[in-house]
């Protein structure tokens, strides 16, 4: 069988699958709904992944009775602890998609998507928030990322939930006035936020905090102090995640790539990324802070290509399929290889 890598980027809100050959050529790419096994259940989550993997195999012209790939490189939201990674590795291996399998947290794929270096720091802020650091000698630092019980704050879901919280308190007098109240009333088409809460309670309408997140940024643009404080807190948290990882790995005074990704960071212009970049560089002057410019599934594929020992040219070819702005480090390595 020709060496192939099946790459899976399994986020909370979407799943991306990429099938590439050992030369970095894209054979197929498909997208589907988010299906974190820790949230939807192991069988249901893996059924979604398998459906997408089989779709990619068919798109690549593979026979249904042949293995999809040599190696499966799966980087998943919710794979936060070693026990979860082991369980997922075992379950995916049993599906028989490939000869070998590696499962890791999706922040590692983000980091590899954003840098060609041996290490760095990545912070993802999408539906949730997380970070990982990798030193050049292979040492890693990561957070449990289990939500409030592990000290986490941030992400689109958090901002959306907090927007509702502030709107309720603005209406009933426990909180400060905020334009978030008007924004949420318009969003739900109601005249009272108390009525919205009642309908959510009785499951007459759903609470989708991720849909409320953009309202925070819209209201902040109008100068609303409550919304601005939410964004300031998010900026502080992203900077903390990055700098704590850097300190733990003794990278504060070293040249280090800091990769930012996730929908909240990539879809809000310079509102968050600009202040985050300035504050990180103030703390670590040699840091290079960049917003990821290829999909994180590319990082999962690159980690898979690393695993099978693909040539440096494979990385160049894969990146070029998505972005003409290939990092200089990749060009240098490809040329020397």
Automatic annotation (TrEMBL):
Pfam families referenced in this protein's UniProt entry, alphabetically: BcrAD_BadFG (PF01869)
Domain ATPase BadF/BadG/BcrA/BcrD type residues, every copy: 8-304
Alphabetical list of SUPFAM superfamilies matching this protein: Actin-like ATPase domain
InterPro entries to which the protein is assigned, alphabetical: ATPase_BadF, ATPase_NBD, Euk-type_GlcNAc_Kinase
Protein name according to UniProt: BadF-type ATPase
């Amino acid at each position: 069988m020709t060496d192939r890598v099946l790459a899976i980027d399994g986020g909370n809100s979407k799943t991306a699958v990429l099938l590439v050959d050992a030369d970095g050529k894209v054979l197929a790419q498909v997208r589907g709904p988010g299906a974190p096994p820790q949230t939807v259940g192991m069988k249901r989550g893996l059924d979604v992944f398998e459906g997408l993997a089989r779709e990619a195999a068919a798109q690549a012209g593979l026979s249904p009775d042949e293995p999809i790939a040599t190696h499966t490189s799966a980087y998943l939201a919710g794979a936060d602890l070693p026990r979860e990674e082991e369980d997922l590795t075992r379950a995916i291996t049993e599906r028989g998609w490939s000869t070998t399998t590696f499962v890791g947290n999706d922040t590692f794929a983000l980091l590899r998507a954003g840098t060609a270096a041996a290490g760095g720091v990545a912070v993802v802020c999408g539906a949730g928030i997380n970070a990982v650091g990798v030193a050049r000698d292979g040492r890693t630092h990561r957070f449990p990322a289990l939500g409030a019980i592990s000290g986490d704050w941030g992400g689109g879901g958090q901002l959306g939930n907090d927007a509702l919280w502030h709107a309720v308190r603005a209406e009933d007098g426990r909180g400060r006035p905020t334009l978030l109240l008007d924004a949420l009333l318009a969003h739900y088409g109601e005249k009272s936020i108390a009525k919205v809460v009642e309908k959510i309670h009785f499951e007459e309408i759903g609470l989708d905090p991720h849909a409320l997140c953009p309202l925070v940024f819209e209201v902040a643009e109008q100068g609303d102090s409550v919304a601005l404080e939410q964004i300031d807190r998010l900026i502080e948290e992203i900077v903390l995640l990055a700098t704590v990882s850097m300190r733990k790995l003794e990278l504060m005074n070293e040249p280090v790539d800091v990769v930012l990704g996730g929908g909240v960071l990539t879809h809000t212009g310079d509102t968050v990324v600009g202040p985050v970049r300035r504050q990180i560089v103030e703390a670590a002057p040699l840091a290079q802070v960049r917003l990821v410019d290829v999909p994180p599934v590319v990082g999962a594929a690159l980690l898979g290509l690393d695993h099978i020992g693909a040539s440096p040219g494979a990385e160049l070819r894969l990146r070029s399929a998505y972005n003409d702005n290939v990092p200089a480090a990749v060009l240098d390595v490809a040329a020397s290889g």
